[in-house]
Amino acid sequence: MALRLHHLGRWCATHARRVLVGWLVVLVAVGAAALAFGRPLTNEVTVPGSDFERVLADLQTEIPDAAGGFGTVVLHSEGGEFTPAQRRVIDKVFAEWKREPQVKTVIDPFENQKTLDDSRRELVKSKKDIASGQKELDKAWRKISLGQGQVDYGEAWIDYFEKNDPDNPMLAKIRTQVTEGKKDLRTGKADYAKGERKLASGRTQYAAGTHVADGAADTRFVTDDGYALTQIQFETNTNSVDPEVKEAIVEIGQQLADAGIDAQYSVEITQENTLVGPGEAVGLVIAAIVLMIALGSLVAAGLPIAGALLGVGVGLAGAVAATHVFDMHSMTPALALMLGLAVGIDYALFIVNRHRTQILDGRDVTDSIAHAVGTAGSAVVVAGTTVAIALIALVVTPVPLLGQMGLVAAGTVAAAVLVALTLTPALLGLVGSRVVSRRAWGAHGYATPGTAREDAADADPDDVFGAGYVRAVTRRPALVVLAVVALCGLLAVPALSLRLGLPDGSSEPVESTAHQAHAQVDEHFGAGANGPVIAVATLDEPAADEDDVLVRQSQVVSRLRAVGGVHAVIPFGVSEDRRTLAFQVVTDKGPADAATSETVRLLTASAGPIGEATHSEIGLTGQTVANIEISQRLAEAMPPYLAVVIGLSLVLLTVVFRSILVPLVATGGFLLSVGASFGAAVAVYQWGWLGPLLAVDTPGPMLSFMPIMLIGVLFGLAMDYQMFLVSGMKEAHAHGADARTAVRRGFTHGSKVVLAAALIMAAVFAGFVFAHLTMIRPIGFALAVGVLVDALLVRMTLTPAVMHLLGEVAWWMPRCLDRLLPDLDVEGTALQHGGTKGETATTAQPATAS
Questions:
Q1: Beta-carbon neighbour count of residue 708 at 10 Å?
Q2: Which residues, including other chains, have CB under 8 Å from residue 408's CB and lie 6 or more apart?
Q3: Using CA atoms, how far apart are residues 317 and 34, in angstroms rounded to an integer?
Q4: Is 75 in contact with 262 (CB distance < 8 Å)?
Q5: Of the candidates 10, 110, 134, 644, which lies 20 to 30 Å from 328 by C-alpha distance?
Q6: Beta pairing partners, 585
Q7: Residue 95 dihedral angles phi and psi, to the nearest 5°
Q8: Alpha carbon of 120 to those of 71, 126, 219, 551, 814: distances in Å?
């Protein structure tokens, strides 16, 4: 591999303008494709085969009016109550909202409140009517009893006269009276029975209505202090609504402010899909500063950034163009941008740094470029392949979004590798000796940059960057290992309380309208109103009529309401065949609260018994339910994912390092890094530590996708540092140094560039801590912490200590396995044995020379 990359580097350096023009043509082409075929991003998350999606699909089929996403708008009258003039403005705004495309309807809170109040008044009236009906029924019964007594009395006289005085003229009159009395009695009894059935039906309906009303608890849509809860129902889920429609809703709503009405919009309406914000730009500036310090030249610092930007541009433009055939989640390009910038800068940095070291040692510029690509470029290929393996393996998870993110990010990483191997040598060829500053040339004994070097004293090995540090680390290696493990373990402690979920309005910036809307709903309408659970009851037999529907609803409501943590249950839909009933289940706590997860668990466990008791099948859906089910599925997918990622990477690292133990040490160190990263993220975003500093206004559960995504990305990046640092040790050992000397020599050759790479990558990731897209923030923070822990504690501290302890055993490899595995020649051994033409023979430099 080194020999082929050497030839590639030489060709790119000698045909620099062709390479540059070629990449610019590619960038323009994919950019044009993105503009022509790209579609808006989405926030929709699907999990094929999930229970919540199955229930939602049934609901959309059976009760179309209940389907579609909802966006919430909280209205507040500055005067404390809504005036007639304000009501007219509100009606006008509602009408304009309804005319917007993709808007199904606007649920009027005033009408809802009136319906709710009327139903409660109707219950009071029904109770009075039942009491009055009972009185009338009692009166009718007394009349029937009196009539029955009169008939019995008359029959007694008839019997007396027939036996004792059959010719008495009174007998015929009494018989007539008794006959009429019996007729009246039959009519009275029939009326009584009818009244009794009507009263029983009234009692049943009253009981059902009471159950439904009790289920609604203290639910309100308009409060006495001037707040109104409005919902805009869309034809599709809110994540699929065109951004222009959401923007139009907010613009139309500006009329409310002129009428003295404050309107706050939920995150479903205001969520943006912005790729780049000020935070990301700041991270890039910090990366440029680190590059300037590490390379000592503005020209040299500009090369990695230029290459990274081009690689990211090509990768992201290609991904956006691909949205013509599939929907792309808003997080996908954000992750690709974050990774593409980080690895693009780092990969180019390794090649540029190697080249600078070589030309300062007297190698010809073109030969140096070729040699740098052949050696450091080999490490870049292996590192990029490791990252790509970790990302592509995300397709084994049950959430297509993760697979999509992994594939797009892997494509961007691949673009970064190609740019580093082709564009970087081309740019190095164009800038020539200017890649090194005049001061650096002078410090290395050159009177004129790029000319023959004057006599200069050899550098003292003890003065090399990192020499003192590695000596200290390897002086007491066992103690260092224990200290690093203990520190990483301490950092990982908060991870034990990790809770997962998806972000809601509470995670938005406190000054945002989405956060304000969430807070106002919480305060004035109940925390659970921010994310109600949807319960769908499919009856075994359709309800007979509307009265029967109410009875069946009351049966389901009363049982759902009895589940712990449920605050209110409100019927909100009935299918045309009266077989499917829909309910909003409002919990005591908000959707992100741990207690709500327990409530959903209880609801799920109670669905079977409730269904048996009500002769129906109960299903649950809604965002809160989706969050919990997604988290469970991702947890189940973790073992196979780790097996794929770690298994493939161990094979690759075994081939690269020709060792059994080195890959195992690398993997063990990764576990420490990821634990510390999880712990730090939980402490900040779930516990709220350093919240004001990192713009965490409302701590809450971690993003459901974060653990598996963080493991994949961080594993790939950790193997990058393992590759670039330990390959120097491997190279030194391959060229005759004993194992412990090789550890120190390899460390000094690679520590400076690995440190710079880690700081650059951490700076890029840290820039996403303040990203526009709030769900990407904890990922950026966790990756920044993970990179620093992995580079500083694991790779630059723990690894040399462990390698020193292992000694020659670290490079042990069974002979049979050594013969079977291919030789990738990452160290560039072939380049040192006449494998190249037109190159001055020089002493080999490690792939990560500083």
A1: 23
A2: 315, 319, 328, 332, 333, 335, 336
A3: 5
A4: yes
A5: 644
A6: 533, 569
A7: -65, -40
A8: 27, 10, 12, 17, 82
Question: Where do the H-state alpha helices sit in 271-362?
Answer: 278-295, 298-322, 331-360
- For tokens 């809170």, the residue is 109
CB half-sphere exposure, 16, CA atoms < 13 A: 14
Query: What tokens appear for 742 in the block?
Result: 């090789």
Contact 284, 305 (CB under 8 A): yes
Residue-level length of the chain: 850
| Helix runs in 165-258, H state only | 170-216, 243-252, 254-258
Strand order in the sheet with 533-539: 566-574, 580-587, 533-539, 616-621
Mean pLDDT throughout 549-564?
92
The reply to whether the predicted model has a pTM over 0.85 is: no
149: which 2 tokens?
């007594």
> What digits encode the pLDDT tens for the residues 308-365?
889 888 988 888 888 877 777 777 887 788 788 878 888 888 888 888 888 888 788 8
Given a contact cutoff of 8 angstroms between Cβ atoms, the answer to whether 727 and 848 are in contact is yes
522 closest CA partner among 694, 700, 693: 700
The letter for the amino acid at 615 is H
DSSP secondary structure string for all residues of 238-297: GGGS-HHHHHHHHHHTHHHHHTTEEEEE-HHHH----S--HHHHHHHHHHHHHHHHHH--
Residues 767 and 414: their CA atoms lie apart, in Å, by: 22
What does the angle CA 664 – CA 666 – CA 670 come to, to the nearest 5 degrees? 115
How far apart, in whole angstroms, are the C-alpha atoms of residue 9 and residue 597?
A: 56
Structure tokens at 706: 């974060």
Which backbone phi and psi does 79 adopt, to 5 degrees? -85, -5
